[in-house]
């Protein structure tokens, strides 16, 4: 029994159209028909395409899901392989979703299942046919979900977990450590589990793929929102370092202040000096820095840049590699460096090798 087109879910209809378009682009493939199987949800397949290649018939059995997150993909692949093994032994299995990340595509290859997404990524291998296509774009929905996962409040949760990825957390415990709501932690938890960056143990949630998480965070990273102010100081070298450390020591009870970007990297994993010093601050921290470093306003020729942060979450995860040298955490410093051009990316790679080399 076939599903009527009018009753098909939108994603299934789009999947059938995408599959048809892909197959019709290959001259050797003659598409005979595409059926929409009226089987119980999650107990069979959604689409069966019948093709002929050089006189030989082949069936493609396709499972369609709206979510292409790795956790959902893994379950669907097992279901699809089981269906082929028991009910369609000569058919080629194909998984179709709105978007399949590189990790999800790798899962399909690992399970020897063809795949197609509505962005244009595809890999089909059956008989004498091999089709592979890669696109670099991500759908708007995926970009929005990632941005949401890395927003300031969510980032507080991620920074806590990245301090020790192998530590398992209960939801309430993690909410207290990150100073966010339990609901916010629950949302982050779902995002991490869906992408298989985290797993659950008897003790709680822990990061199973911290490097994959950090890679994606770096790709989607947006610097902390704030007013960027440029200054000039006559201090440099050791005299600058000593003055900056005195200021940061004195502001602990009266304001928030931390070295950032290249300046933080100098203390965390020295790679190369830069002519500009970088700080994050709140209003009180900025005033003390202005006084302690004898800063003057500069429209050009600046050598100190201070970002007056709107959200103060970054300060909850600072480190002090030397007395008075308050720096953004290795994770935050890495993200800032990776977004700072070619020289920044080189410094970020060095920092990651020295301070963020987690056990696989």
Task: Write a brief caption for the model.
By secondary structure, this protein is of the alpha+beta class. The protein has 13 helices and 14 strands.
Any chance you could write out the topology, listing elements then pairs?
Blueprint: H1 10-24, E1 29-36, E2 47-53, E3 56-65, H2 70-87, E4 92-97, H3 102-110, E5 114-117, E6 122-126, E7 129-133, H4 140-149, H5 152-163, H6 171-178, H7 182-194, E8 198-201, E9 204-207, H8 210-220, E10 226-232, H9 237-250, E11 257-259, H10 261-268, E12 277-281, H11 283-292, E13 296-297, E14 304-309, H12 330-338, H13 341-355
Parallel strand pairs: 3-4, 4-5, 12-14
Antiparallel strand pairs: 1-2, 2-3, 5-6, 6-7, 8-9, 10-13, 10-14, 11-12
Helix pairs in contact: 2-3, 5-6, 6-7, 9-11, 10-12, 10-13, 12-13
Keywords:
360 residues; alpha+beta; five-stranded mixed beta sheet; disordered N terminus
General description of the model:
- With 360 residues, the chain is of the alpha+beta class.
- The chain is 42% helix and 21% strand.
- The chain has helices spanning 10-24, 70-87, 102-110, 140-149, 152-163, 171-178, 182-194, 210-220, 237-250, 261-268, 283-292, 330-338, 341-355; strands at 29-36, 47-53, 56-65, 92-97, 114-117, 122-126, 129-133, 198-201, 204-207, 226-232, 257-259, 277-281, 296-297, 304-309.
- A seven-stranded mixed sheet has the order 1-2-3-4-5-6-7, with helices on both faces.
- Helix 2 (70-87) packs parallel to helix 3 (102-110), helix 6 (171-178) packs across helix 7 and helix 12 runs antiparallel to helix 13 (341-355).
């Amino acid at each position: 029994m076939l599903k009527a087109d009018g009753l098909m879910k939108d994603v299934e209809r789009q999947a059938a159209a995408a599959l048809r378009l892909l197959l019709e682009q290959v001259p050797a493939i003659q598409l005979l028909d595409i059926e929409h199987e009226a089987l119980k949800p999650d107990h069979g397949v959604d689409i069966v395409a019948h093709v002929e290649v050089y006189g030989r018939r082949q069936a493609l059995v396709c499972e369609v899901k709206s979510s292409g997150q790795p956790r959902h993909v893994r379950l669907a692949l097992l279901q699809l392989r089981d269906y082929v093994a028991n009910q369609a032994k000569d058919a080629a299995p194909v998984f179709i979703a709105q978007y399949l990340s590189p990790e999800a595509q790798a899962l399909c290859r690992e399970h020897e299942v063809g795949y197609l997404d509505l962005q244009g990524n595809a890999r089909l291998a059956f008989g004498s046919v091999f089709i592979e296509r890669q696109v670099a774009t991500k759908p708007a929905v995926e970009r929005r979900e990632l941005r949401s996962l890395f927003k300031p409040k969510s980032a507080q949760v991620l920074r806590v977990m990245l301090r020790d990825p192998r530590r398992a957390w209960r939801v309430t415990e993690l909410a207290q450590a990150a100073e966010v709501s339990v609901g916010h932690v629950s949302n982050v938890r779902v995002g991490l589990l869906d992408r298989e960056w985290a797993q659950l143990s008897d003790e709680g949630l822990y990061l199973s793929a911290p490097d994959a998480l950090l890679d994606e965070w770096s790709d989607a990273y947006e610097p902390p929102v704030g007013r960027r102010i440029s200054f000039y100081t006559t201090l440099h070298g050791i005299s600058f370092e000593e003055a900056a450390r005195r200021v940061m020591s004195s502001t602990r009870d009266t304001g928030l202040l931390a070295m950032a970007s290249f300046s933080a990297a100098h203390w965390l994993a020295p790679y190369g000096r830069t002519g500009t010093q970088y700080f994050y601050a709140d209003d009180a921290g900025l005033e003390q820095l202005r006084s302690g470093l004898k800063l003057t306003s500069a429209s050009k020729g600046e050598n100190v840049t201070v970002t007056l942060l709107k959200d103060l979450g970054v300060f909850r995860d600072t480190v002090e590699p030397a007395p008075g040298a308050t720096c953004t955490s290795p994770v935050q410093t890495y993200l800032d460096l990776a977004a700072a051009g070619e020289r920044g990316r080189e410094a970020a790679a060095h920092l990651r090798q020295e301070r963020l080399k987690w056990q696989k």
